[in-house]
Design a protein that fits this description.
single chain, 304 residues, mainly alpha
Length: 304
């Protein structure tokens, strides 16, 4: 009996609420190291593969670097679709599992500010990881976007670089390397496309993290929060999050497919930019609703 009382008294202080482990604190750096390893391995594999195609040393190097950038971008994109959701989904739900939710309420901060702080704690490390990926975007602007935008296909290539999902961007990079696409000089248009692609990926990250954090505010446990976060996040990515793709396909089907159908690409680009802006706004709205629900729960006004 005395032992159980001691355990209950020590539980809130054994692990303060919101304090991450050392592995969780440096998770973005671990992921960045893994991305670098994938890049190096893909570059070496690409160099060996393209060296057998009787290309010059310069063309082999360019193709190998493009393969490495595509593989690293795909690997990092997979991490950004999974790990931020896990961290955000456990933001509030895990405190209920550990029994430290009440201790979290004893902090001197306002409860809404506490909830917002938990979200930023889950989101900002992966923003830091996104910054580690900037060289991949710059390399993409040099090797693909800037060269393609110099030709007559610029109104087709630019929207597709901006709006295509990460797996298709990775496949396009492999295809460009296989076809021996040569580099061009950095151009303002190429760097602009790379910057907009970075903002687009950041909006997806913010939206998925916000959905997971909103789910954690009402889920009964971490397991349910994770499951519902992935279900709702995947549903968003395949429906409203891909509205630009669906609108482009609908427009192309209505007015005909073809490389000369610039209107479908322009429509997809405009809708894609609107989706990016909407994802940033909706992420703030969802986190705000989660903060209000957390405050209501702290006051026992939500019936929980």
């Amino acid at each position: 009996m005395i032992r159980r009382i001691r355990e209950l008294m020590a539980a809130p202080f054994a692990r303060p609420p919101g304090r991450p482990s050392a592995h969780a604190a440096y998770a973005p750096e671990y992921c960045a190291a893994g991305t670098c390893a994938v890049f190096v391995f893909a570059v070496l594999a690409g160099a060996v593969m393209h060296d057998r195609l009787d290309r010059s040393a310069g063309e082999t190097l360019q193709a190998a670097l493009l393969v490495g950038a595509a593989a690293a971008y795909g690997f990092a994109g997979l991490l950004l679709l999974i790990l931020p959701v896990i961290f955000a989904a456990r933001g509030l739900a895990r405190e209920r599992d550990l029994g430290t939710a009440e201790a979290l309420l004893l902090t001197p901060l306002d409860h809404r500010r506490t909830a917002w702080g938990r979200f930023w704690r889950a989101f900002l490390p992966w923003w830091r990881f996104s910054l580690y990926l900037l060289p991949l975007y710059v390399l993409g602007a040099l090797s693909v976007a800037s060269k393609a935008l110099c030709g007559i296909d610029r109104w087709i290539v630019a929207p597709f670089i901006l709006i295509l999902p990460k797996p298709m961007i990775m496949i396009a990079g492999f295809g460009a390397a296989h076809e021996g696409m040569s580099w061009g000089a950095w151009t303002l248009a190429g760097l602009l496309v790379a910057a907009l692609r970075f903002i687009k990926d950041l909006s997806v990250l913010a939206m998925l993290a916000a959905i997971a954090f909103w789910v954690s505010s009402w889920a009964r446990g971490s397991g349910r929060a994770l499951a519902w976060s992935f279900v709702i996040g995947l549903g968003w990515l395949c429906s409203l999050g891909a509205l630009h793709l669906w609108s482009g396909l609908f427009w192309a089907r209505a007015f005909g497919f073809g490389l000369d159908n610039y209107s479908a690409c322009v429509v997809a680009l405009i809708v894609g930019l609107a989706v990016v802006a909407a994802q940033f706004v909706l992420s703030l709205v969802l986190v705000g609703r989660a903060a209000r629900r957390f405050e209501a729960w702290s006051l026992r006004e939500d019936g929980v």
